[in-house]
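Entry for the shared binder. Reason: the reviewer on the internal report wants the predicted structure included alongside the sequence.
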Amino acid sequence: MNALSVRTKLTAWYGGLFLLAGLVLVVINYLLVQSTLPDPARVASTTIGSADATYGIAAGTPLPSEGVAVRLLSGSLDEYRSSTLSTLVVGSAIALVVTAALAVLFGWLMAGRALRPLHDITSAARRLEAGKLDRRINLEGPPDELKELADTFDGMLDRLAESFDSQKRFVANASHELRTPLAVQRTLVEVAMADPDAAPELRKLGTHLLHTNERSERMIEGLLVLARSDRGLQARAPVRLDEVVRAVVRATAASAEAAGVAVETRLRPRVVAGDPVLLERLVTNLVVNAITYNASGGWVYVEVRGDPALEVRNSGPVVPPEAVPTLFEPFRRVGSERTGDTRNAGLGLSIVRSVTSAHGGWADAQPGRRGGLTVTVRLPPS
C-alpha cells in the first residue's frame, strides 16, 4: 500500500464520517422543526372558535359555517407547514453537500500533511543499500508518534551501518592476514619441489598442495574484492566498458583455446562512470565463468551495448531455473559439475553483483534454452 492510497482512504474516511454526521444533524433538525410547528387542524379550530366568540356575535355580521372555515384555514396552515419543511430539507441538503466537499478537500490536505513524515521514511528506506547506509530522516517537529517512529528508524540505521562496517572490516582484515601465511606456504612447497633429490611422492604431494594453495589464494583475493566493492565507490572515473571487455577477452584467449571454447564479441562504445579495477574484475569473472562452466566445442558470446550494458551468454550444462538466484550467493555452486569443483572459489557471481551494485546497477541471470547461462549487467550511463 503506497502513501497515495493511504491518503485517499483517510480522505474518504474523513468525508464519509462528516457526511454521516451531517445527515444525522439534518434528521434531528428536521424532527425538531416538525415537532415545533403547530398542528394545522387544532390551530384552525382554536382560531375559528375564538373569532366566532369575539367578532361574529358582537358585530352581527354573517360568517361562513365553522366547518368550512376550519378546513380553509387548516389547508392554508398545512401548505405553510409543508413549504417550511421542504425549504428546510432543500437548504440543509445543499449546505450538507457544499460542506462535505469542503471537508473532503480539507481532509485531503490534512491527510497529506499527516502522512508526509511517513513519505520521508519510505523515501529514505528506498535509497538505502548495504553499502550506503549514511542517509537519515532527521524528522523535525513535535515529539509525537511520527517523530518517535522516525527517530527509531534512524537509530536502527545507525546500528545497521555499524554492523555492516564491522563485518566488512573483519572480512578485509582477515583476508589480508591470510594472504601472508598462504604466500609463505606456497614458497616453502616450491622450494621443496625444486630439490633435485625430492622423491616422486613428495613432488606429487607438493603439486597437490600448490593446487590447493592456489585455490585458497583465489578465494582470499575474491573476498578482498568483495569487501572492497561492498564498501562502495570512493571516486568515479569514465571507463570505456568495451575496451575493458576487449582486454579481458584477449587475456583469457589462451584459457578459452585450452578448454575448446570459442569466444565471440560484439562491442559497441560504452562509457561507464566507476572504478576501472572493479569493472575489469567484473568482466573477468563473467568471462572466466562462461569458459570454465562450459563444454568442449562450446561457445561464449560477449556483448556491450546500451541496456543492458553488458551481456555474457555461454553454452554448457543445463542450469535449473530455481537454482539461478543461488548462483549470486558466496560459495554456492549448482549441479554435479560445480559441486566440489576446485577450479574456482564460488565467489565469481557474488563479486559481479556486488561490483554492479556499487556502481548503481543490477546484475541478473537467466538459464539458456539449451543449457548454459545468460548474465546481464545493467549500469547507469556516465
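Summary line for the report: The mean pLDDT is 79.
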